[in-house]
Design a protein that fits this description.
By secondary structure, the chain is an alpha+beta fold. The chain has eleven helices and 21 strands.
Length: 425
């Protein structure tokens, strides 16, 4: 988890930024501007899109500018056509791509912000002008990022409007226009290719807060999980101690006998299904079996026919003798149980797949060779399905696989079928 946290922090710079293209756009227009000197325009468009222009005015003038306006409020705004605004406050700045030829060292980038709330404070307040400067050498190297923090409110606007101090600072939530120009005399050729807002998709503070929140949730879940496991473990140990000690001191002999009957099949004397599950809980503490555990599901062939032909009493004799025969052939550590009807299960631990299959064949043959004490004599055979865990596996899952193998074995009767997915050592 610590490594993932480090990777998450290292990956932060690679998260794609959020962007909003201002120019070029179908909803945005451009137009050059500049003064008329000696009856001649100082600004000349160089293409039909009016995104490239030439500024030409004499050195004797100072304080004038020529450039290009970018606006998205057209036609003129009215009561039925309110001003369109761009909220740049959620971004970090502008990315400008432009080409320049001329003797100027800097071009000016300006934006117009028109907050309608300010006019309620001071009626007649005009749009606020903010500006910063672009180094033309930077433009020659490719797109230039201009931070919003670099913009300052134009001094002439503050002097002419004299706004209250609390609304006189930079703001970018209601942009209604922008532009780029030069204030140096001379000849300038400029082409504006692209303007877009750029910002972090998620701030550093929010990103770190999310990582911290993830850790808090993770630690809470980890603490709860450990507490739950400890509580379950203590409960399980308490149950095991109660089973080993025979319960409390007031538990009578009749109750002990009743408990024994509840886990033993009364007809065959072997474990019943409840007894099998209880032993699984005692040995493994849950229903999950370790790697290498084998399971055989056995079914007496044509048992219904036996009952129909010789009666249920003969069937009971066969069930008792079958259970005794199998129990005598398996180890004490193996778990043998009657699952229901003529179906039995045998849980074997610590055998290879070859040994497990050999044991199943041995049991099948022992039953086929055994002379059951029923009158008249009838030959009894069994079908066996075998499965084995290759990793920790739930008992129900292992049983389903063995049951599938049993279904295949019953097609031929008196046979063994295994569902090993690969050979075990």
């Amino acid at each position: 988890m610590a490594l993932l946290t480090v990777l998450a922090i290292a990956a932060k710079p690679f998260i794609p930024p959020k962007t909003q293209t201002i120019h070029p756009s179908d909803n945005v227009r451009t137009g050059p501007f500049g003064p008329i000197i000696d009856g001649r325009a100082t600004t000349i468009p160089l293409n039909k899109e009016e995104t490239a222009w030439r500024c030409d005015y004499p050195d004797r003038f100072n304080g004038i500018s020529c450039g290009l306006s970018i606006f998205w409020n057209f036609p003129e705004t009215s009561k039925n056509n309110p001003k369109k605004i761009i909220d740049a406050s959620e971004y970090d700045g502008f990315r400008i791509q432009a080409a320049y030829e001329g003797r100027a060292d800097y071009l000016r980038l300006f934006v117009n912000n028109d907050n309608p709330e300010h006019k309620k404070i001071q009626p007649g307040l005009s749009e606020k002008y903010l500006a910063t400067y672009l180094n033309v050498d930077d433009l020659r190297s490719g797109p230039v990022f201009v931070s919003l923090k670099d913009f300052m409110v134009e001094e002439w606007w503050v002097i002419s409007q004299n706004p209250p101090r609390h609304i006189a600072g930079p703001e970018f939530g209601h942009l209604v226009g922008m532009g780029i120009d030069s204030i140096d005399p001379g000849i300038h050729r400029v082409r504006l290719d692209r303007v877009e807002l750029v910002g972090k998709r998620i701030s550093d503070e929010t990103y770190l807060l999310l990582i911290l929140l993830f850790w808090v949730v993770y630690l809470l879940l980890e603490s709860y999980t450990r507490y739950y496991r400890l509580k379950k473990g203590a409960h399980r140990q308490r149950e095991q101690l109660e089973d080993l000690s025979g319960g409390n001191e007031q538990l009578s002999k009749e109750n002990v006998e009743l408990q024994s009957r509840s886990i033993t099949d009364p007809l065959t004397g072997v474990n019943n299904r409840t007894g099998l599950i209880q032993k699984l809980q005692q040995l493994y503490g849950r229903y999950f079996l370790p790697t290498g555990t084998g399971l055989m599901v056995m079914d007496i062939d044509h048992f219904k026919t036996i009952n129909d032909r010789w009666g249920h009493q003969a069937g009971d004799v066969i069930l008792r003798e079958f259970a005794t025969l199998i129990a005598s052939e398996v180890r004490a550590v193996d778990i043998f149980a009657r699952w229901g009807g003529e179906e039995f299960v045998l849980l074997v631990d610590g055998n290879s797949t070859q040994a497990l299959k050999a044991l199943a064949e041995k049991l099948r043959q022992r039953v086929a060779d055994h002379h059951f004490s029923v009158d008249p004599v009838c030959r009894v055979t069994i079908s066996i399905g075998v499965a084995q865990t290759e990793e920790i596996e739930a008992f129900d899952s292992l049983f389903k696989r063995a049951d599938v193998a049993l279904y295949q074995a019953k097609k031929n009767r008196d046979s063994v079928q295994c569902v090993f997915t690969s050979a075990s050592p």
